[in-house]
Amino acid sequence: MPDEDLPNIIAVDDDYAVRMGMEFMFKKWPEYNLILAEDPDDALAKLDEREYMMMFSDINMPVMSGLDLLKIVKEKNPELPIVMLTSETDIQNSITAFRYGAMDYLLKPPTIATVRGAIDKAIEYLEERDSKGSINMDNFKDMVENFSPEEMGLTKSGSKSTEFTKLVTMLQEKLIHPGKIGRIHNLFLLSKSGIVISNLSAKNVEQTDVDIMGGMFTAVKDFMEDAVSASTTSSLNDIQFGNFHVKFASGAFSELAVVYTGILNQEAEDSVTDTLIAFELENMKILENWDGDMSKLENSIQYLENLFADIDKDKS
Amino acid sequence: MDDFDDDEWAEMQEMYINHTSKELKNIKENLDSVAFDSLRTFGHNIKGSGGMYGFDEITTRGAAIESAAIKENLEDIKSHFDALEVFLESKL
Fold it and tell me: Structure pTM?
């Protein structure tokens, strides 16, 4: 019987060998109860029985997939950190998992280090959530629409206004996927006028927010082109908001904004630039006289998905 | 840093080899009546779990079984099963 005083973690996998491996790992961590489920139905029943700190789930399972399970569980309990287990060939599933609100995905086979890392990230996220309390998002739209680098003190070093600090907190809440292990949190493909052509974001970013942020990113980028010094070695513009960054690649007709945490290395930067170039080359004729009709640029999401798969995690 | 010590690792590997041998035996005995999808799942599962227990050979063999099952190539599957059986027996 699990110790009722300890936090519960559920792991769902139809493969007995993976469940057995998880059991071995958790013998190392007696501070948690590991509850095993052999399929999504079993998991849903067990999730109803007690409170859980987090969930690990396989994606590829018969009858109901891990992605369907993720969707159901997120609807019932949006705050539960969920980590999906996937194989290298399932990168499309990993992207879908990210969109459905998974905290992250781990490539199979899970190792003691990657599983422990995911647990630590979930703890970090839960602690941060508990300490932060609720943020008033009511004036997010006004704040973003009135974004002014000068008034917010971005033009002077070390003198950011309280308005800017508030904006950063709100953007963080909207854009940063809590506990994510990979570095990419959002990708926005924008027209020069700030219209969002396409975006790859987790489920918690609403479409109205996406449109509002498209305009803001364009303002930020314009400001940076005017004000940022040439001291950087990067060919791309990069601005830090709190503990995350937005990096911009500029094309002839469009911009690509990458919202990330940690470090984006040169290889990843090159992929960002190459993606934008490839997108513009394929759609040159449409972009030259684009009238805002999104249906003409439906292929844009594929570029973002491929880029996400390419740069979210370092290749090892 | 958490890690398994040699004894734990040996215990895990032994359990895994026993479990996989039993599964393989069962599936081989019923090969004529087993659907290709079940064979694919078996290949997919050992592809995912082999590396977890330090057996990259099982992962590679699992990928080959999965691929042969998708192509519904029973001869290839049988040949991979035989090779897997030899490998598992060498570890028992």
Answer: 0.71
